[in-house]
Amino acid sequence: MKNIAIYARKVTKQNSAMFVELLAIIRDLGWTPILCSDLKEQLIRKVGIAENTEEFKTHHDFKNGIDLAVSVGGDGTFIQTVKFIRDSNVPILGVNTGRLGFLANISTENLLQALESVKKKEFVYQERSLIRVEMENNPYGEDNIALNEITIHKKDTASMITVHASLDNRYLNSYWADGLIVSTPTGSTAYNLSCGGPIVTPGCQVHILTPIAPHNLNVRPMVVPDHFDISLSVEGRERRFLMSLDGIPHSIRQGEIIKVKKAEFLVNVIKFEDNNFLDTIRNKMMWGIDKRN
């Protein structure tokens, strides 16, 4: 391992010292830090790092010798880092400076320990699947992938919409609701969880269909094999609706066909023995904690 890409959104007075520490640790371990161009500009301006520090700008740079990606921030930052990684097979390590952190769950206090463990190869890869969205006009271009979910929402109206869903070219259901979420196992702890969907452990080869405030109370979230293609279309009182892919919105037309399928590649997330999914979910959800005691 030699070249370490670092992505973060914002440098503040509160976290600037942490970035200086991170760069120092990486160099002390004999590696070369490569910063996102926007992050580099912020660090030059706010903490005075060297202007000749290496940088990356697009996902194409990840196929040119980058060995590890470090995401510094919350889960949103982690998702954006994945959009740089794509199918490059570069593993990702998430450092949490946010609040909850299901994906980015390495604390800033454990930076040195985590990176030393990476150098010693004392970690495992946890494979995470993504979904790909295909449409006739392809509004997302190359960014038509999501680590968490695709969501269909109503737009500019208080009325319900109807989302028609087919699974493996067979009609499944028409959801009368405020919207519909199609989630990966990774996204099961995101918007899917807020809407009453199930928590699914990473590695399960499934997608989750979760309606948002469904009109029919007998309609429930459904877990389906991820090798089945999902086809969606929307109708309602308005002519246009909202689709979001990991929070990135686009307007869609009534009757427009949206095809959802599993992406052709996986993302390798670095995990340590003392930092597994079951521990994370139990701690974040505070399961087994009795505040009375």
Task: State the gist of this model.
The protein contains 6 helices and 18 strands. The protein has 293 residues and is α/β, with parallel strands linked by helices.
- Beta-strand percent range: 35-45%
CATH homology-level superfamily of the largest domain: Probable inorganic polyphosphate/atp-NAD kinase, domain 1
CATH topology of the largest domain: Rossmann fold
Report the helical percentage: 10-25%
Structural class: alpha/beta
Q: What is the approximate shape?
A: globular
Instruction: Count up the helices.
Output: 6
Low-confidence stretches: none
- On the 0 to 100 scale, the average pLDDT is 93
- What is the number of domains? 2
Give a quick account of the main beta sheet: strands, pairing sense, barrel closure: 6 strands, parallel
Name the features:
Rossmann fold; about 20% helix; 2 domains; alpha/beta; Tumour Suppressor Smad4; 6 helices; six-stranded antiparallel sheet; 18 strands; about 35% strand; six-stranded parallel sheet; about 290 residues
Task: Characterise this structure.
By secondary structure, the chain is α/β, with parallel strands linked by helices. The protein folds into two domains: 3-123 and 272-285, Probable inorganic polyphosphate/atp-NAD kinase, domain 1 (Rossmann fold, 3-Layer(aba) Sandwich); 130-264, Sandwich (Tumour Suppressor Smad4), CATH 2.60.200. It has six helices and 18 strands. It has helices at residues 16-28, 37-46, 75-85, 111-119, 191-194, 277-285; strands at 3-8, 32-36, 54-56, 68-73, 92-96, 106-107, 124-134, 145-146, 149-153, 161-167, 170-177, 179-183, 206-212, 222-225, 230-235, 240-245, 248-253, 258-271. The strands form three sheets. It has a six-stranded parallel beta sheet with strand order 3-2-1-4-5-6. A six-stranded antiparallel beta sheet has the order 8-7-18-15-10-11, with helices on one face. Strands 14-13-12-9-16-17 form a six-stranded antiparallel beta sheet, with no helix packed on it. A hairpin with a 2-residue loop joins strand 10 (161-167) and strand 11. The longest helix has 13 residues, at 16-28. The model has no long low-confidence stretch (mean pLDDT 93).
